[in-house]
């Protein structure tokens, strides 16, 4: 189990960094006018330079990726109800993501900004959850069908 968690941390870290990089490229394409913005420009002034800001964003994105990857173990726990697993996963994921988003200026630092971030987070989380739920349900139905045909 310990090796599994270490692997989840390692893999999750690089997934987080990768997602952060892809998002920065997408944002630069849509609003950069040919200029690449590796981080939010406000972050550069807050942390005293582009390199420092990129390093901080890279580390925090990696940590966030590791946290999310490790949170999958909550959903794998068969001793908890689906509701309890989902609420623990959702709450922990939201708190960690909101904290990093606030530090890195991924959201406006106001009540409205945090509220809009919350709504967007819940909508995306719900869509992913519903998609995953139907995938699992489809797989279970396939297994049950094969068992009936035996």
From TrEMBL:
Keywords: Membrane, Transmembrane, Transmembrane helix. Pfam families: DUF3021. The chain crosses the membrane at residues 9-31, 51-75, 87-105, 111-136. Coiled coil: none annotated. It comes from the Bacteria. The keyword Protease does not apply. This is DUF3021 domain-containing protein. It comes from Peptostreptococcus porci. The lineage of its organism: Bacteria, Bacillati, Bacillota, Clostridia, Peptostreptococcales.
């Amino acid at each position: 189990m310990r090796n599994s968690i270490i692997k989840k941390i390692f893999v999750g870290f690089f997934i987080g960094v990768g997602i952060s990089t892809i998002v920065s490229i997408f944002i630069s394409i849509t609003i950069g006018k040919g200029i690449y913005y590796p981080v939010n420009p406000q972050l550069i002034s807050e942390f005293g330079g582009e390199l420092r800001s990129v390093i901080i964003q890279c580390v925090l994105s990696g940590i966030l990726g590791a946290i999310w990857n490790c949170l999958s173990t909550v959903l794998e726990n068969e001793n908890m109800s689906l509701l309890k697993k989902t609420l623990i996963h959702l709450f922990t994921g939201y708190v960690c993501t909101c904290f990093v988003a606030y530090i890195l200026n991924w959201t406006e630092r106001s009540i409205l900004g945090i509220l809009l971030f919350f709504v967007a987070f819940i909508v995306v989380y719900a869509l992913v959850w519903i998609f995953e739920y139907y995938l699992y349900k489809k797989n279970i139905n396939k297994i049950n069908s094969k068992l009936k045909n035996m």
